[in-house]
Amino acid sequence: MNIHFFQHLPFEDAAGIRSWMESRGHRFSRTAFFENDPFPALDSLDWLVVLGGSMNIYEHDRYSWLIDEKQFIGKAIDAGKVVLGICLGAQLIADVMGGPVKKGAYKEIGWHPVQRTPDSARSQVFSALPEEFMAFHWHGDTFAIPPDCIHTAESAVCANQAFSYEDRVVGLQFHLESTLESVENLILNCASELVEAPYIQTPASMRRGYGQLQALNSHMNILLDSIAAANAR
Predict the structure, then answer these.
(1) CATH number of the domain located at residue range(s) 2-230 in this protein
(2) What is the pLDDT of residues 15-26, one digit of tens each?
(3) Strand arrangement, sheet containing 150-154
(4) HEC per residue, 9-32
(5) Among candidates 122, 134, 189, which has minimal Cα distance to 161?
(6) Is the pTM of this model over 0.85?
């Protein structure tokens, strides 16, 4: 299987997803927008994974590639590809599918629990996850659930944490792919966001959660395996 990544920042990469791909024998490639990489040929990929980033999806004046990225995401969805978005990636997919993105009531940074919604039982992908699990978060914006999608997860801070369309297009506001290295990179590069606020944890608090990384990545592997099973051809 050919998996292609859209990467928006040097320090926010595939992290734990890379281990899953390598263990399953999948081929992977990427477009690094910060290096002005070209878009791939659509027929060269089976999955498109859209990673996170600190930019807002509407900052077209600062990040002109966002316009072309959204167009490519739309084409990939229309072509029947598997499309997975994480954090910013989920927001981009939601916007393309008609779910507007706006500033959330609170920034959610650190370790916070996520619950599956009752409707998630209609999704083969999300039914494989526990009813409640700990996730890692780093976001201030939130998306509306796009039309025809299943609202699959929520949290106390952010009602719309995940969605699924035909178990083929999946958006996660939270992170399950995080590793010690990827969290440390966020702490280092996004330190200005770590202000005192109700749902923003300190670096020390986030580091105390490192014992949860193994379970976090296990949930990521289960989710990815479930997406693969739901879309086996």
Answers:
(1) 3.40.50.880
(2) 999 999 999 999
(3) 27-32, 2-7, 47-50, 82-86, 169-172, 162-165, 150-154, 101-116, 132-143
(4) ECCECCCHHHHHHHHHCCEEEEEE
(5) 134
(6) yes
Cα separation, 166 vs 164, whole angstroms: 6
Per DSSP, the three-state class of 160 is coil
pLDDT per residue as tens digits for the range 140-152: 999 999 999 999 9
87 is catalytic: yes
Q: Which of 87, 112, 137, 139 is catalytic?
A: 87
User: How confident is the model over 197-228, as pLDDT tens digits?
Assistant: 999 999 999 999 999 999 999 999 999 999 99
Q: Give the C-alpha separation, 213 to 220, whole Å.
A: 10
- The domain segmentation of the chain, as residue ranges, is 2-230
- Which of 112, 139, 151, 175 is an active site residue? 175
